[in-house]
Amino acid sequence: MSILEDLKNGIVHFAGSLRMTPIQATTWFLCWSAWTLASLQFYLLPFTLTNLAKYLHVEQSKISEANTTAMLSRSIGAVIFGIASDQYGRKIPLLIDLVLLAVFTLCSGFVKTYGQLIGTRLLFGVAYGGVYGLIMAACLEATPRRARGIVAGLTQQGFAAGYMLASGFHLAMSNYVWQDLYWLGAALTAPVFLFRAFLPSINTSTIEDDGIAAGDLEARVIIGGKLSFYKKLKYVLRYHFPALVYMILLSACFNTMGHGSFDLYPTFLTTQRKLTIREETWVTILLQSGGISGAMVGGYLGNRFSLKWVPFCFAIFAGPFLPLYALPTKWNLLGLGAFFMQFGYGGAIGNLGNIFQQICPHPGMRAAFGGVAYNLGNAISAIAPTIETKLGEQFPTKGGTPDYAKTQLILVGICLGLLIICLGLMPLKRLNEDWDIEDPNAEIPHAGDQRTGGHELDSGFQKGSQPEALHIENAPKT
């Protein structure tokens, strides 16, 4: 009876954690929509990989290199739009970024040569890289503390939702030419752009758990725009550089496993497993549904219990399902393995947005810190799809098709092991639950008298002993 009562209380607590005002919920939905749209546009290339290779008369591995180019250039966009949104507000930089995403996606449908494809995807990568840090900072600063686990998890998995939508459009438009997918992806930018243009900025400072409005304060004041970005950057690099390095490595593990497990997966399903487009779509939907549901559950549990050990356990959970994810020949078994493997991965990465906000040393540069660290990790992971493609072509099956199953299992297995190690080494003392009550315009940020208590549960990287290095975890208690 007590188990049923605990389950009931858990469900009630889960539902109650999503309680927020309409403007908070709308802001969250906008941020999710922007990240989902950008991810949809990014994942159009894997779904048209075979068509593009035939159209441009190149090998499929060359088309994978175009996606690698986009992943490498994302860090540039993260720097540009991260700084802009941290200094001038979240709204205008996002609107500019959406326009650029639409333009470069549209141009991708008009390419005639391989060089043009590389150029358009490189520029698209710059625009795509500007989205993550901006929207993750915007949605988490706008929502109550109790909701941030689920909010961060579902927002993070906007890339899974974008992947799923790309798969659905690929099925629905299978009778059309491949260019139409890119033109549709560009057109879908319009409603998200208008949504952001007419939605008022929330500008909240969540001093209380439910969040309180910041009134008539300027957007620049709320996010720390009155302090020069150079001073924030100098503070972070001088006293908290190890935190940045750690987050880049953690992001690299997450993203290499993610891109390694599903960028090439549609090609693997159709070329090696010989699935129809309909069957491939069903497997893809199951795979990404697992990731989305896992992120929601994992994000909630991580926010409630531990941002270190919850994702650690979810990553371990994913391991046993790797063989079922790649080795079966029937679509239903592949879908089963893909769902549970991605459920574990989603439960782990669903905490990443929250980790970025809490480990960021200065509250006035959360968009830039999260965006740059996330996309530098992505740059490290950029080679994953190309490695899988080239190794698959180099070591074909007996039937002559590339052995993508073997290469995916090896790469994803290695990345999962590294991810578990990296999560186990997370410096909990660096996590700061009170980032939302620190002054983002202070050159040396700390909560001072408003301190309500952050994590001091584990040893972390040693910070400098200078007074200027004061941060939440070593601020004097009152």
From TrEMBL:
Residues 446-458 have a biased composition (Basic and acidic residues). Keywords: Membrane, Transmembrane, Transmembrane helix. The chain crosses the membrane at residues 27-46, 92-111, 117-138, 150-169, 181-199, 241-262, 282-302, 309-327, 333-356, 368-387, 407-428. Residues 27-430 form the Major facilitator superfamily (MFS) profile domain. The keyword Transmembrane applies. PANTHER family: CARBOXYLIC ACID TRANSPORTER PROTEIN HOMOLOG. This is Major facilitator superfamily (MFS) profile domain-containing protein. It comes from Phialocephala subalpina.
